[in-house]
Every structure is written in structure tokens, then in C-alpha cells.
Amino acid sequence: MDASFKKGPDDVLKSVGSVGAKIRWIRTQCYQLMLPNGKTIVTDPCITSPLPGIPYLQHLKTDDFAIDDFGSADYIILTHTHMDHDLDVGHLYEKYHSRVLCPAGVAPEVVKFFRITGSDVVPLESEREYMFPDFTLNTYYATHNRGGSGMPYDGQDATLMEFGVEGHATLHDLGTLFNLNYLISLPDNLRIGFMAGIEYEQLCERWKTKAPNVLIAQPKKNKTDRGLMMWEDLAACAQMSHAQIVLPVHHDSMQVKGKEACCEWVKKANDYLIEHGSISRVAYPEKYKWYDISVSISLDNEE
Fold this sequence. Notes:
Blueprint: E1 4-7, E2 13-27, E3 30-34, E4 40-43, E5 75-77, H1 83-86, H2 89-96, E6 99-103, H3 107-114, E7 121-124, E8 129-131, E9 136-141, H4 158-163, H5 169-177, E10 180-185, E11 191-195, H6 200-206, E12 214-217, H7 231-241, E13 245-248, H8 252-255, H9 259-275, E14 281-282, E15 291-298
Parallel strand pairs: 4-5, 5-6, 6-7, 11-12, 12-13, 13-14
Antiparallel strand pairs: 1-2, 2-3, 2-15, 3-4, 8-9, 9-10, 10-11
Helix pairs in contact: 7-9
């Protein structure tokens, strides 16, 4: 990933930028991160479409992105194993022979259900640091949203009822019990944080000396319109974490509202951050589009 240079007519340096990584949003909490050496990390992979008879999940229907479209998946990192976070782990593993990093409490079931070779799974404990050839991973305890799912419906298999996939009930139930926040640190000190739990303040306090440059977090849903996420919540995460860029997850339902509504949502969050003197900014990524994570310096246009 090359640095970019721009010069003026007198060969005066106008700007210089360095791209530290690339990132794109796929669905729900599935992001794909491309490191400077070309290796890729996929988080919480699920592109399996829900059954057509489940109206409240139709915003998750995915017929324009396939496993082949990932291109590569050297690492898969799971925050937890609810059905909308892990159903395509096995498909990615089979295609790309990924290393699978998941909470230790679900690791045996991940091996069993997705038919993964045990040596390719890394069971993650909370409050630990793991060194990999391409990045360092710090893990932190996370509590799943208490309003979320995680129990079978009347003893039935929720994944079978909603996605038509059999045998996933145990993993889905364990997804509420075992959940992790984590911080990815690249060799050039770029840090990407994933906030998968509800302990916003506690986690940001822990990150004071190792704050992420990019934070990926789930804002709470609007109580009066469940299709909208609370921009106030994401702005608060931005302020507390001191991350320069904040990206949402679980915002698929907002896509239905249209691009104008999404832009207005981001504007409100960023207007709030500007008003409160924060350098953090909220971004709303387009599905499947690659974005550069970069640092740059440029000549002030006012001079």
C-alpha cells in the first residue's frame, strides 16, 4: 500500500499520505480488513440469507455477495456465535483454510459444527494478549446486549427456524454467554478496536493508553423506530474512546431507510462531535466498498 504524494507547480509539497490498511463492511458485524502485507481478517462472517418467511430479517437478505467475493480470509475473528455472526465460518474455512479465532468457551463446538481442524482454531480468553505473525490481538471481557437473543424459541432451534440451518442451536445459545471485545494492533501501530459488548465506559477506560485509531461499535436501536440506530450512542462511543474514526455495526436495517436518511444520521453524529470539540468522526461505509485507513498531512489551503 503505497504512500501518496501531491506537489504544486513549484514542486512544493502539497500533501503526503500513508495507507495503513484497507477495510470494507459486508453485513451485520462482518468487516473485512486487508493488512499492508496483503493478509486479510474477516470478522463475524454471516452472509447466509434468512428464510423468506421471516419478515423482520429480510433486511439481511444477501444475494449480491458470495464466499468467492471475499477473495481471501487468512484469519476469522468471532466476537460471539449468534447465528447472524458465524454461519459462514465453515464456508470461509473450506475455501481459504483460515485460522479461526473465537472465545474459548465456544471453541470445541466451533470445531465440531463447522468441521474445522482443531489446530486451526485459537481459543481466546478475555484479558489476554495474543501475538500473530501479522498483528497483535488484545481481548477484553464483553457482555452481550441483554435484550438480544440467545435462547431457543420454546425449546426449538432458532437458527433452523430463521435461516434453515440445522444443528447450530448450541452455538447460538453460547453466543450470549461468551462474547469478546478486542483490539487489533498492526506492526506500524495502527489500531482497530471492536466493541461487541455493552461495557462502553469500562472498555474506553482500559483503552486510554492504547486507544484505537478506528473503532467499530454497535449503537443502540432507536426506541421509537427500531429501524434506526441511535447516532447519540455512537457519538458517545467516539468521545469516550478518542478514536479518530468510528464505524457502526448491525446497521443493515438503516439501509432500508435510504442513502439520504443514512447521510443525515451521520451528519447529526458529526455535528455533535464538532460542537463538543472532539476530533472523532463517524463514518457510514457503503456495502462491499473498500476504504483506505490512512494518515496524511496537507498544506493548509488558507495559507
